[in-house]
From TrEMBL:
Its EC number is 3.1.3.16. CDD domains: MPP_PP2A_PP4_PP6. Residues 138-143 form the Serine/threonine specific protein phosphatases domain. Keywords: Hydrolase, Manganese, Metal-binding, Protein phosphatase. Transmembrane segments: none annotated. The lineage of its organism: Eukaryota, Haptista, Haptophyta, Prymnesiophyceae, Coccolithales. This is Serine/threonine-protein phosphatase. It comes from Coccolithus braarudii. InterPro entries: Calcineurin-like_PHP, Metallo-depent_PP-like, PPA2-like, Ser/Thr-sp_prot-phosphatase.
């Protein structure tokens, strides 16, 4: 009697279901399937749950190879918070250039608050799977199990898939996202800001990122801190992270040979805001945040010589 062996997904031990995007595919075939799924999600057609599971596992394997502080070469376009505003993400790519023609760094907070966190996360993961060296996904404070249960992503997964499994797949993947990126060794990208426990980028590289975001300490600070019109450090009204000032920023940049810290995390009405004699910039990429704030959005394009275009 002849038995036909089930196709196996290279990322799991169990035989894959016939609908698995990654089963029995490699090279051009998988690229074609990813292209098809990218087009589908752009039309708000959700991936089947099994495909999303394997997509998360596949991207997690890619993230395993990346550093806690991921080096990136210019030219590159840097994006702030998206927060589930999927149609604005599509407009972002229309404005900044489609991937892979344009290389991107997203500084976290992909999900929560907006109506389409599932679609937003799925598109970013598909682009990462398709063009792994052209898109860098940093962790933000909302890439967290605790936060996403409060601010919408968990409930959206339940509503759109009928269970919490997609939320589990994505939040497991969040644990592997880099905490920062450094462009040409001179521009640091991080979601929140600095930490009194971290004076050098080398110290940042030693942080164990493979965990839920802690409630305190250097990892927490990178996700939660904010710049303020002070010189040193102050307690943050957020209850996590710190407020940090001009002297802290100047010293950090001098010690690490940086010309700019680029961060997100705070709504900026004009879309971007320089501080500390243009040593730091906040970039915000969700226009009309929460569909009511009336703010502009911005992306920062760094050229071959790190020239800046907002």
């Amino acid at each position: 009697e002849t038995h036909r062996r089930a196709a196996r997904c290279p990322l799991c031990l169990e035989p894959a279901e016939p609908t698995c995007l990654f089963a029995a595919h490699s090279g051009r075939d998988m690229g074609a399937d990813l292209d098809r799924w990218i087009e589908n999600i752009r039309k708000c057609e959700l991936l089947p749950e099994l495909d999303l599971k394997h997509l998360c596992e596949y991207v997690q394997e890619l993230l395993l190879e990346e550093s806690t502080v991921q080096p990136v070469q210019s030219p590159v376009t840097i994006c702030g918070d998206i927060h589930g505003q999927f149609h604005d993400l599509l407009e972002l790519f229309h404005t900044g250039g489609e991937c892979p023609e344009t290389s991107y760094i997203f500084m976290g907070d992909f999900v929560d608050r907006g109506y389409n966190s599932v679609e937003t996360m799925t598109l970013l993961l598909l682009l990462k799977a398709r063009f792994p060296h052209r898109i860098t996904l940093l962790r933000g404070n909302h890439e967290s199990r605790q936060i996403t249960q409060v601010y919408g992503f968990y409930d959206e997964c339940q509503r759109k898939y009928g269970n919490a499994n997609p939320w589990k797949y994505c939040t497991s993947l969040f644990d592997w996202c880099p905490l920062a990126a450094i462009v040409d060794g001179r521009v640091l990208c991080v979601h929140g800001g600095l930490s009194p426990e971290v004076r050098s980028i080398d110290q940042m590289r030693l942080i164990d990122r493979k965990q839920e975001i802690p409630h305190e300490g250097s990892f927490c600070d990178l996700m939660w801190s904010d710049p303020d019109d002070i010189e040193m450090w102050a307690v943050s009204p957020r209850g996590a992270g710190w407020l940090f000032g001009s002297k802290v920023t100047t010293e950090f940049n001098q010690i690490n040979g940086l010309e700019l810290i680029c961060r997100a995390h705070q709504l900026v009405q004009e879309g971007y805001k320089y501080m500390f004699s243009e040593q730091l910039v906040t970039v915000w990429s969700a226009p009309n945040y929460c569909y009511r704030c009336g703010n502009d959005a911005c992306i920062l394009a760094l050229g071959d010589n790190l020239e800046r275009d907002f």
